[in-house]
Specification:
Blueprint lengths: L7 E2 L2 H10 L2 E8 L2 E8 L1 E3 L7 E7 L14 E12 L12 E15 L3 H16 L12 H9 L1 E16 L6 H11 L6 H10 L1
Antiparallel strand pairs: 1-8, 2-3, 2-6, 4-5, 5-8, 6-7, 7-8
Helix pairs in contact: 4-5
Length: 203
């Protein structure tokens, strides 16, 4: 990914937090010589491997997992908030529109989970993570025969991250005064509040 120096983010704690916050990502591989993408929820095990390990599952009917191999990296893209930036917010009259955004690219070799207990624990962790927001979380308690049937229909996998790229394009190339103006403008709309908060966190 093209990353100008001003927008590069290398802090692994920041990148891990971003992945955990924006965990619904795009997995990209090569399928018959062409790009192939699947959109999936991921779990990050930050303690597994020097850069962490991504864990996920997909439908067994999805052909993408057949292309997993030990010699070819895959790319997982985590995209955060983004917003149009109007040149009318800048102090310098001669300016052009742009777009502020945050994204993390994670690369690694996918490995299929063969052990049924490990796959079960992956599903349990994923469900408990997302059910935690509810007042009455749904308990992962299914009849054993139904659970096994459902599990046969999916393929779980781990991706030990070999490298991480973070690009947080947040008007770092503008003056501090202009950044404050941009943040204030973005705070006026609930649709762009998240990116305003992210910009503030980088100050």
């Amino acid at each position: 990914m093209y990353i100008p120096k001003a927008f590069r983010e290398d802090d692994i704690t920041t990148l891990h937090k971003f992945i955990q916050t924006y965990s619904f990502a795009t997995l990209i591989t090569q399928h018959k010589g062409l790009p192939f993408a699947t959109h999936l929820p991921f779990i990050l095990d930050s303690e597994r491997g020097p850069n962490g390990t991504l864990r996920a599952h997909m439908a067994r009917a999805n052909p993408q997992w057949h292309d997993f191999n030990s010699a070819q990296e895959v790319l997982t893209i985590f995209q955060g908030p983004h917003a149009y930036i109007s040149p009318s917010w800048y102090e310098v009259e001669l300016s052009v529109p742009t777009w502020n955004y945050a994204v993390v690219h994670a690369y690694g070799i996918p490995r299929i989970i063969e052990d049924s207990e490990e796959l079960y624990q992956l599903l349990k962790t994923l469900i408990e993570t997302h059910e935690a927001q509810f007042e009455k979380p749904w308990p992962f308690q299914l009849q054993e025969d139904y659970l096994h049937k459902m599990m046969r229909g999916i393929v779980g996998f781990n991706i030990e991250i070999t490298r991480l790229e973070g690009k947080f394009k947040m008007s770092q190339n503008r003056t501090e005064a202009e950044r404050e103006i941009v943040i204030a403008a973005l705070q006026e709309s609930s649709d762009t509040l998240a990116i305003a908060e992210l910009m503030e966190s980088l100050d």
